[in-house]
Write the C-alpha cells for this entry.
Amino acid sequence: AQRVTQPEKLLSVFKGAPVELKCNYSYSGSPELFWYVQYSRQRLQLLLRHISRESIKGFTADLNKGETSFHLKKPFAQEEDSAMYYCALLTGGFKTIFGAGTRLFVKA
Amino acid sequence: GAVVSQHPSRVICKSGTSVKIECRSLDFQATTMFWYRQFPKKSLMLMATSNEGSKATYEQGVEKDKFLINHASLTLSTLTVTSAHPEDSSFYICSARGVEGAGNIQYFGAGTRLSVL
C-alpha cells in the first residue's frame, strides 16, 4: 500500500530548540519525497525535496530507505517556522500522496 | 516561482445550485492538474487528476457526475460542483504540475472556500 504517515499532529518547541518532524512512507517503488509547508493564511508551497539534497530556511531532510523515513529537521527553531508541514510521496503514477500534516508551533 | 491562480476564493451558494471553480497556471504550462478537498484540521484529500485534453481520473469514492472536471488547455482546469448540497461545503484546492522534467513539483492555488446553504 502507498501511504505517508506523520505521527504527530502537533509539535510544540521553544525558540532555539531543535525540531524534528517525523515522516514515514510505504511504497514498493523508488520514492520521491517532498516536504510542503503552509504558513498562516498562505497557500501550500514546496519547502524541499529529497532529490535536491538542499537546506531551505535551515531545514534539511534525509531519505532513509532502510527505515522508510524522511524526517524534517532544523537545529534551531524560529518563531517564523510555525506552520503546518506536510510530507508527500510522489508515486510512479505521478500521483502525490500527502501525510496528515504536523502543526509546528514555536514558542518565544 | 510558478504561480497558480484559483478563483473564486470564497463562494456561498444555495443548495441545488452549481458552482464552478477555476484554476489557472499563470506562468507555466501545466500538463497535470489536481483537485483536492480539505476538511477542517485534516489533510488534503485528492479528488481527481486531470491531464490536458483527456478525461479526469477520479479517486475512489468521488462522484464523477457530482464533481465535473474540465482541463481544456494547458493553463486552465475547472471544477464544477453540481447540485451542491450542504455536505459539499469544504475547502477545495487545486494544484498544477509543470511539464516533465520540471522537478515534479506541485504548485498550489490559494483554495476556494465553498459554503452551501
